[in-house]
Design a protein that fits this description.
This is MaoC family dehydratase. InterPro entries: HotDog_dom_sf, MC_hydratase, MCH/BMMD. It comes from Ornithinibacter aureus. There is one protein chain. By secondary structure, this protein is α+β, with helices and mostly antiparallel strands. The chain contains five helices and five strands, in the order βααααββββα. It has a five-stranded antiparallel β-sheet. It is globular and about 65 Å long.
């Protein structure tokens, strides 16, 4: 399975639909809030959300929604990235609730070769996240520095840094075809 892309593999206008989706549970949302010290009652206090907000229920914290979508995009977009250069914009346009399933897709807006190093380029992308009913919940644009093929070949190819298994008393080595 492909994990990320080299500069040459990106096409302006291409859209990558990330799979699978992720159903957001109350536990996921609460754990993320606690880990990041976001203790706003809109996310953690069901009574508060029911009694005092327009939503009538807890809303999933926006940074978790963004993090899920960013993570979903890694196998298609930044799995081979040299660096994430910039988050240009981030908009939360509709709420996500516990039990919603998020899906994402990313479109390549532009790409250009690095002016300082000839073994890499920059890809400008937009990711949209949407719920099971198609409602868009989050939109963000970012710029990612990705390697060219020659960069990857100089560093070990498709899976750089992957070790070779060493035979020992527990595993004698690869089985030879009979």
């Amino acid at each position: 399975m492909q994990f990320g892309r080299s500069y040459e593999e990106f096409e302006v206008g291409a859209t990558y639909k990330h799979w699978p989706g992720k159903t957001v549970t109350e536990y996921d949302d609460h754990l993320f809030c606690l880990l990041t010290m976001n203790h706003h009652p809109l996310h953690l206090d069901t009574n508060y959300a029911q009694e005092t907000t327009q939503f009538g229920q807890n809303v999933v914290v926006g940074n978790y929604v963004y993090s899920i979508l960013l993570g979903m995009s890694v196998p298609d977009i930044s799995g081979k990235a040299i660096a994430n250069l910039e988050i240009e914009s981030l908009r939360h346009v509709a709420p996500t609730f516990h039990g919603d399933t998020l899906y994402g897709e990313t479109t390549v807006l532009d790409k250009w070769e690095s002016t300082s190093k000839d073994d890499r380029g920059v890809v400008h992308v937009e990711t949209i996240g949407y719920k099971q009913d198609g409602t868009i919940v989050c939109i963000f644009r970012r710029k990612v520095m990705v390697p060219k093929e020659n960069y990857l070949q100089e560093r070990g190819g498709e899976q750089p840094g992957r070790p070779t298994p060493v035979p020992d008393k527990n595993w004698p080595g690869p089985v030879s075809p009979a």
